[in-house]
Write a structure and sequence with these properties.
Distance between the termini of chain A: 64 Å
Order of helices and strands of chain A: HHHHHHHHHH
Largest sheet of chain A: none
Number of strands of chain A: 0
Number of domains of chain A: 2
Number of helices of chain A: 10
CATH architecture of the largest domain in chain A: Orthogonal Bundle
Oligomer: homodimer
Largest interface: A-B, 52 and 52 residues
Chain lengths: 214, 214
Amino acid sequence: MQKRAKIAKTPGKREKNKELRRGQLIRATIRSVARRGFAETTMADVTKEAGLSLGLVNLHFKSKDKLMEETLRYLSEEYESACYAAMASAGPSAADKMRALVELDFSPKVCDRRKLAVWFAFWGETKSRPTYQQICARNDRRYEKIITDLCQEIIEDGGYTGISPVTMASGLSALVNGLWLDLLMTPEDMPVENALQISFFFLSHAFPNHFTSA
Amino acid sequence: MQKRAKIAKTPGKREKNKELRRGQLIRATIRSVARRGFAETTMADVTKEAGLSLGLVNLHFKSKDKLMEETLRYLSEEYESACYAAMASAGPSAADKMRALVELDFSPKVCDRRKLAVWFAFWGETKSRPTYQQICARNDRRYEKIITDLCQEIIEDGGYTGISPVTMASGLSALVNGLWLDLLMTPEDMPVENALQISFFFLSHAFPNHFTSA
DNA sequence: TAACTTTGAATGAATACTCATTCATTTTTA
DNA sequence: TAAAAATGAATGAGTATTCATTCAAAGTTA
């Protein structure tokens, strides 16, 4: 009893290191997938990138597949919390929050070519991997819910007609994903400012009283 | 001389079969990548899928990498000629042609989950493979040129102001790519009709005299 | 507190396996 | 018959995973 309580309270150096290692390996995986691609990333790459020994991935994650899965989950969660943070520090109105989310999507934190490469690497494998499919779908739905609710509020506030919040939300998130693809593939032809401009162009045409193109 | 002339004129059974085999192998690659994913597709999968012997890929394509490259090129060219065909059989105006292109993008021929899976599989690997990058970029540029020119014409025809053809074209093609991603990942949440509706929603807001939402 | 024991993290050489590629042989075409 | 295409067993390079061993931290005892 005494023992159990003690262990539960303080994580101890061991526990802490374990989490540290997992994080280290996940971040190394991201770097390696960004550099070499999904198909070419080996355990040796990852562990070398992390500055750790070869056997560690199997110790902490059981298998390469599980490591990849956890990496996808990590990216998902990171993005999700960034969204909540952006909304929290934005102005109070739905339009303010929407603006903050779009700006987040093209901010250096989210819209970094290394991370985009990893997202697309996973998306490329998703069709044939049910687990990735699940993680991504769960993520997508949560995100679309947020955007849909914001659209709903904006539509009510502006008295816009002929626009469904679901249509608008799906369109906006598709647009952002498509712009990310351009940013990844032909960054010379699509600077971030253009991507932002296009997104706000889309918003301003649908919600002219809430957004401007510039 | 006679012989040479003959060979140059008619491809001959040999030449024909060679092309036939190459096509068979490429189509088998598409099926395999769609089913198993890029990373998991092996030579054995491809040749078995094609009903041919293991060594044939190396005979006809030199290496697996080259096969993949040719497969990407095949998809690119197929899409490009479908675009030209759609435009040719559309009405004469720029808006007609634009409508035809968007409809093509969501027609069964182009917007088939197997093919979408392969596109995204390649895009996922593109960052780390310069050759793919090149093929894709060349493709993208040609496509954006077509769309940009159509936008230009529509803008002039409608006297629209405050809209740049390049912005509009980039936006539209990003939107289509993003919708394809949704169609691939969560087809239950994004039926083709919705995707079409969203695309025309975007067009109708920018070019209200040329397109309607419904 | 100090000495001892147990636990489990970390290592990387060895293992076991997968898979692209080669090539000797057979079959088909001209 | 000569040349090309096709076959698939054999090869060997590359890689995920295992595991005996080392070592640091946590727990126990006196």
